[in-house]
C-alpha cells in the first residue's frame, strides 16, 4: 500500500506540460522524424546508385 500512496503522491507532484509545450514538442518530434526519413532515403538511394555503377 505504501508503494501505491507514493505513486499517487508523485503523480500530484509532477509538472505536466501545457498545450503550447505539447505542440512544440510534438512538432519537434515530427520534424526530426521527417528529416531522418529523408536523410536515410537519400543515403539508401546513393548507396544503391553506387552499387549499380560497379556491377
TrEMBL record:
<keyword id="KW-0811">Translocation</keyword>
<dbReference type="GO" id="GO:0006605">
    <property type="term" value="P:protein targeting"/>
</dbReference>
<keyword id="KW-1133">Transmembrane helix</keyword>
<dbReference type="InterPro" id="IPR005807">
    <property type="entry name" value="SecE_bac"/>
</dbReference>
<keyword id="KW-0812">Transmembrane</keyword>
<keyword id="KW-0653">Protein transport</keyword>
<dbReference type="InterPro" id="IPR038379">
    <property type="entry name" value="SecE_sf"/>
</dbReference>
<dbReference type="InterPro" id="IPR001901">
    <property type="entry name" value="Translocase_SecE/Sec61-g"/>
</dbReference>
<dbReference type="GO" id="GO:0009306">
    <property type="term" value="P:protein secretion"/>
</dbReference>
<keyword id="KW-0813">Transport</keyword>
<dbReference type="GO" id="GO:0016020">
    <property type="term" value="C:membrane"/>
</dbReference>
<dbReference type="GO" id="GO:0006886">
    <property type="term" value="P:intracellular protein transport"/>
</dbReference>
<feature type="transmembrane region" description="Helical">
    <location>
        <begin position="29"/>
        <end position="54"/>
    </location>
</feature>
<dbReference type="Pfam" id="PF00584">
    <property type="entry name" value="SecE"/>
</dbReference>
<protein>
    <submittedName>
        <fullName>Preprotein translocase subunit SecE</fullName>
    </submittedName>
</protein>
<dbReference type="GO" id="GO:0008320">
    <property type="term" value="F:protein transmembrane transporter activity"/>
</dbReference>
<keyword id="KW-0472">Membrane</keyword>
